[in-house]
Design brief:
Layout: E1 5-14, E2 19-28, H1 36-39, E3 46-50, E4 56-65, E5 70-75, E6 87-90
Antiparallel strand pairs: 1-2, 1-6, 2-5, 3-4, 3-6, 4-5
Length: about 90
């Protein structure tokens, strides 16, 4: 059985002068995943974002970001701007 987890899109992956529109920073809503070691278990899993018209945009967790349990996910298609601060599912 596949366990579903919820997460929140925080922001784009970005630098001072650059912004990567296909990579997003994602924070898992579960308190268990609050360190780099814990979230590294989720690498390679699938992330799904559902639009308001029930379309699904799929992505993949590619790397950790920082030491506080934030993940980087790459989506096959860019998400709309209003996707920031919305929920996604990790399968």
């Amino acid at each position: 059985m596949v366990k579903l987890m919820n997460a929140t899109i925080i922001n784009y992956r970005r630098g001072v002068r650059t912004q990567h529109n296909y990579q997003y920073l994602i924070e898992v809503d579960d308190d268990k995943y609050n360190s780099k070691e814990k979230v590294s278990e989720l690498l390679g899993k699938t992330v799904t974002f559902k639009t308001s018209s029930n379309k699904e945009i799929k992505g993949k967790i590619i790397h950790t970001h920082g030491n506080k349990g934030v993940l980087r996910a790459r989506f096959e298609k860019g998400l709309p701007g209003e996707a920031i601060s919305q929920k996604v599912e990790i399968k």
